Please model this.
Amino acid sequence: MGRNNLGGAHVKIDPKIESILNKALAGKEINREEAVELVKINEHSYEMYALMSVANTLTRRQFGNKGEIFAQVGINVWPCPRNCGFCSFGADWNVIESRVELSLEEVVERVLIVNRIDPLCANKIDPLENKNNQH
Ligand code: SF4
Model:
């Protein structure tokens, strides 16, 4: 185990992981084997927190400490029979109980709500524009 300065914390982490993270922090591209090592990190380990810290640092560095938030409006959804293990839409997970399909008015209402949430949004859309232009 190595002792590291990642993010200012002084905890012991696996030196192999530390080396990969320091490589990334130095702006060098990691290779496939190194990426696989990162994927294998236990989610409850110090190594995972080091990975998250480095990811945060690199993201903020890349994007000048700015971020964009995208909101989605679900128009229709139903329990999906494919049941992919990672997806909450899968029927077996019982997150979605029945088919839901929004009306046009409900979609517009939700878009207006989302639009109000982000007053600094530079690319606001007019949810009524297409509705009013329909023939
Ligand atoms: S990802 Fe989700 S919605 Fe897509 S097929 Fe799998 S369970 Fe269905």
User: Anything to note?
Assistant: The longest helix spans residues 46-62. Residues 131-135 have pLDDT under 50 and may be disordered. The pocket of iron/sulfur cluster is lined by residues 80, 82-84, 87, 89-90 (CB under 6 Å).
